[in-house]
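User: I'm curious whether this sequence folds into something compact or stays loose and floppy. Could you predict its structure so I can see for myself?
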Amino acid sequence: MSTSTKKMVVKEDILNACKQYIHNEDSLKLIEKSIDYATKMHDGQFRKSGEPYIIHALNVGYILAVLHCGPRTIAAGMLHDVLEDCDIPRETLVKEFDEEVTALVESVTKIGNIQFKDEKEYLAANHRKIFIAMANDIRVILIKLVDRLHNMRTLQYMTEEKQKRIAAETLEVYAPIAHRLGISEIKNELEDLSFFYLDREMYYQIAHLVEAKKAERDEQVKHMISDISDLLGKNKIEFRIFGRSKHLYSIYKKMKTKNKRFEEILDLLAIRIVTKTELNCYEVLGYIHATYRPIPGRLKDYIAMPKMNMYQSLHTTIVGDDGRIFEVQIRTEEMDSIAEQGVAAHWRYKEGSKYDSRREQKEIEEKLTWFKDFAMLMDGQEDDNPVAYMDTLQKDVFEANVYVMTPNGRVIDLPNGSTPIDFAYRVHTEVGHACVGAIVNETLVPLNTILKTGDVVQIRTSKQFSGPSEDWLKVVKTNQAKSKIKNYLMRKEIERRQEKIEVGEQIIRDELRKRGFDDKEYMEKKKFEAIFNHFQVNNYVDFMYAIAVKSISPPSVVEKLTNQKRSVLETNALSKLLNKEFSSKKSTSKSGLKVSGVDSMMMSLAGCCSPVLGDEIIGYITKGQGVKVHRVDCPNVQNTKSRLIAVEWDETISKQQYESNLTVLAHDRNFLLTDIVTVISQCKGNMTAVSCVVNGEDLTATAKMSILVSDIEHLKNIIANLKKVNSVISVERQIL
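Assistant: Here's the prediction. I'll summarize afterward.
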């Protein structure tokens, strides 16, 4: 059923088209009322062509009726410009019709008196409004697509500049969404019309090539149709068969993307066979392949694996008796209807069925698996930059052409270059945040693996995982994943900053107590505000954060805060040991350690417990080897009461790596060590040594390894992820 309208559309045309499938008098009266109301409201308004404005509304209503849309959808299509162009208040439209019709009209209406910095931002804001409304009610985009289709059919009356702008917008936004919804009739016409206005010379060049070969092609197709008809007739299969012409823009796109000449495009000679059942489709394919030579690699089964827009068909390319190449499409009547009109065909109005938007939207998400992803893309986007939003939509949805599957068979579409992390965020935001590994086609792979169409992807998650890092931003392809990762990192930074503020406050409390002051007396924000200028900070948050990260000295803060210089109470263990008065002098080692009270002292990390930045540590004064720094829980210093010295990490020095020794106990299996090494690599750990032994009695394996980490949080992250490796029993830090 074609949506094309060549003659002048009048009221009776719409009503007659509606009466073919709508028999309820109230529904027909609603449509008639919308036609009369729109005619009255648009009276005296004219289009650029000089024709009455109502002609546009009538064409929109007629095309919606041809698509067998519901009465409220047709009514909203008739009224889609009255709020914007006729100064009709919303309340008036609700009173004249109802809330449902008004909501549809409002969703299609352009954004009004809001200031935008340029036209690009204005258009993006309008598109975002429509697509967000579409995520809630599919009828919105049907009306908008039909509205745009008729505008494109009458674009010749606009200036050349406006023609190009509207055509580019149509090609970039509306044609892709029509394709996504499977409405190929509208999509093809939008593309060809856009192509005409954007590159008229190339349009005519391809049209001329097509026309020059038309008589010859028609004869070849006619001959092939006759032969195939005889073949299927002998085997008593019900069918319809006809030739199919390729639209001009698709020919141009193939020539451009595949760098082919016009003569090289295989499926210019195309035949479509429409039969009764799915079984018939495969029978027809079998008979054709048994009679004609198929071209290898050109068979596509979209019946078993439908496209994202519900399209189903068998495609094969064969060589005819005269050496000509034909593309043959085989499908059922229902598949053919959905192939042409997509979602519009599937959700055609059925007499007596009450429209339930929630039920319909749920059904859409079940039928169009990508629609759920599309709706999820809208979450939290209302206040975002509209241009960035449309960019995300363009890249993540419209340009998606890699199709991968979850283990339960759900198809996820992604742009070229996408990774398991992109996949995880498309499944769900929390799955992305907790992603620690990926299994693609039953093989554990790095998270930066590029996915290919047909891959089956399983995401491993961990509740103990600390979440995504900035490195992920270099790996992911989709804007959606980038946005989710940036939001997560921003939230975590705020949380970390708050933690540092609390650390800063505690440092000042401790410093006040050391110097004999009452911390309760001085720990008031107002008192700190008086000394902000001295330390070149603007607020309390920045001030405490600077103290926590050691960029402001706690003693100098206390001196300014109390306006007194008072020595620290002699309670430090090192002061007693060395019989020195506590001073503010520091000794810092290359290992990022410092000790109060000593100008120069050799310090090193103990090899037995291998402390890393962030561990609780204690120093042990050796004879002739300076201070050995241990973890406080190291057995080698547990029973030592003398010769201990307080040491601390100096976080002001540049970041370095610390060696840590781990023991992993696991049930033995194939690829165990491979999985362990992969996880450590994914967590940015650098392995320096590894050994693994198998205990034959209980079939367990013990892996011992040395890895370089940046701090205790990095180490904890690696341990948490190692514990999630299949068959791992425990992961412990070694004490040598």
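Summary: The chain has six domains: 11-109+138-198, 209-346, 366-469, 478-568, 570-656, 658-733. Residues 111-117, 569-587 have pLDDT under 50 and may be disordered.
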